[in-house]
Specification:
CATH topology of the domain at 2-237 and 273-303 and 337-353: Rossmann fold
Shape: globular
Pfam families: Epimerase
Largest sheet: 7 strands, parallel
Helix content: 25-40%
EC number: 3.13.1.1
Family: Belongs to the NAD(P)-dependent epimerase/dehydratase family.
Pathway: Bacterial outer membrane biogenesis; LPS O-antigen biosynthesis
Number of strands: 16
CATH class of the domain at 2-237 and 273-303 and 337-353: Alpha Beta
Radius of gyration: 21 Å
Keywords: Hydrolase
CATH architecture of the domain at 2-237 and 273-303 and 337-353: 3-Layer(aba) Sandwich
Order of helices and strands: EHEHHEHEHHEEEHEEHEEHEEHEHHHEE
CATH superfamily of the domain at 2-237 and 273-303 and 337-353: NAD(P)-binding Rossmann-like Domain
Structural class: alpha/beta
Bound molecules: sulfoquinovose-uridine-C1,5'-diphosphate
């Protein structure tokens, strides 16, 4: 297949591009390199030394003989360029990762909120709009988030996208319907993915676009089969308070002797998936497109759930790291249970890579190898969800920990 990977320079986009290229597909990365610019804005860099996208694709070609093509396009701003590219190349499938994906970054300031909404919603809408205009019947696979559901349940497992409901009619009968599970985002970033869901539902219904939305949990790990092949194919690995995600952060913190930064009591339960499974799921989704005219196909892309404090305790036990119990900069439930259905991917053959000490140790080893690149002052998560929370949380400039000032 000819596949366009939008956002193919990012944390999940890059290993996905390699995986699909390795499987024999013709891969084109469309990216505006915004993630690299955000590193510059924040004054941080990936823990792992990343080469330019051109250099990465050159090394991939030298290693495998396969070409990955790169096109510098800003989907949110360059509508005509995007449309022209799609008209010329007419890909069979499009994978859409091209969104600002960090919740803390989206909550930093009014400017960051605007940027995240404008970038994410316009990128998605420009793409859908152009596909209709060009009569392009490509299968669109979008990387969404588990966060569209919120994380609290009423004792029932979160279904894969659609919730069966009974509605009482005026004459007293009960009519059954399946509706999109009520959106309950916890950040501006997560909210943009809820808006995406509405755009997809409309374009599937109105124009018959074939769309798959993957509601992914928190990704952990860094290597995949293909990124291991050469040191210059290494994936990016974020550790900072905005882009680092919880389990990877704990592992890096353990490697550099930094107390594990648990927010509150660490009672938040979240869904997780290893990066290797993430790229496999995308390939499985590609092989199972919905029918034209059908509703949006939704998969829960996660393999297990864990409570944050249990992860911290596991990493502490494994490495001897200390745990710091910090005031939470986010507005979220301090404790929640989470049960999620993920039978669709399992039914299509996914064999989950679960949290095993071997893989966790491998990440600590990667972190130790590159520990000299870590700026400890960038470790604390300082982006507060509200002005009230910002007023009660102070950032220690030594980079040791956040402390409550109230
Ligand atoms: N947390 C800590 N300490 C830390 C960092 C995070 O206790 O140092 C806590 C947070 O308060 C939160 C939980 O860990 O309760 C998860 O935070 P996270 O930063 O690992 O994940 P999140 O902000 O939800 O976002 C990440 C990705 C996002 C993806 C989402 C999937 O950045 O792109 O959509 O995970 S999900 O969480 O299932 O919505």
């Amino acid at each position: 297949m000819k596949i366009a990977v939008l956002g193919g320079d990012g944390f999940v986009g890059w290993p996905t591009s390699l995986h699909l290229s390795d499987a024999g597909h013709e891969v084109h990365i469309l990216d505006n390199l915004s993630r690299r610019w955000i590193d510059t804005e924040l004054g941080v860099q990936s823990l792992t030394p990343m080469d330019s996208i051109q250099e990465r694709t050159r090394v991939w070609h030298a290693e495998t003989g396969r070409r990955i093509h790169f096109h510098l396009i800003d989907l949110a701003k360059d509508y005509e360029l995007l449309k022209g590219w799609l008209a010329k190349h007419r890909p069979d499938a499009i994978i859409h990762f091209a969104e600002q994906r960090a919740a803390p970054y989206s909550m930093k300031s009014d400017r960051h909120k605007n940027y995240t909404v404008n970038n994410n919603v316009n990128a998605t809408h420009n793409l859908l709009n152009a596909m209709v205009e060009l009569d392009l019947d490509a299968h669109l696979v979008h990387l969404g988030t588990m966060g569209v559901y919120g994380y609290s349940t009423v004792g029932a497992a979160i279904p894969e996208g659609y919730l069966p409901v009974g509605i009482e009619t005026m004459d007293g009968r009960t009519v059954s319907q399946e509706i999109l599970y009520p959106a309950n985002p916890g950040s501006i970033y997560h909210m943009t993915k809820c808006l995406d869901q509405q755009l997809f539902a409309f374009y599937a219904k109105n124009d018959g676009l074939r769309i798959t939305d993957l509601h992914q949990g928190i990704v952990w790990g860094t290597h995949t089969e293909q990124t291991r092949r050469h040191q210059q194919l290494v994936n990016r690995f974020d550790y900072d308070g905005d882009y680092g995600t919880v389990l990877n952060r704990f592992l890096i913190q353990a490697a550099i002797g930094y107390p594990l930064t648990v927010h509150g009591t660490g009672g938040q339960t979240r869904a997780f998936i290893h990066i290797q499974d993430s790229v496999r799921c995308i390939e499985i989704a590609l092989k199972n497109p919905p029918q034209r005219g059908g509703r949006v196909e939704i998969f829960n892309q996660m393999t297990e759930t864990h409570r944050v404090r249990n992860l911290a305790e596991l990493v502490a036990k494994m490495t001897g790291a200390e745990i710091a119990w910090l005031p939470n900069p986010r507005k979220e439930a301090p404790e929640n249970d989470l049960v999620v259905k993920n039978e669709k991917f399992l039914g299509l053959g996914l064999q989950p890579t679960t949290l095993g000490e071997g893989l966790l140790e491998e990440i600590v080893d990667v972190a130790k190898k590159f520990a000299y690149r870590v700026d400890r002052s960038r470790v604390p998560a300082v982006s507060a969800w509200t002005k009230d929370i910002a007023a009660t949380v102070e950032h220690d400039p030594e980079g040791k920990r956040l402390k409550s000032v109230s």
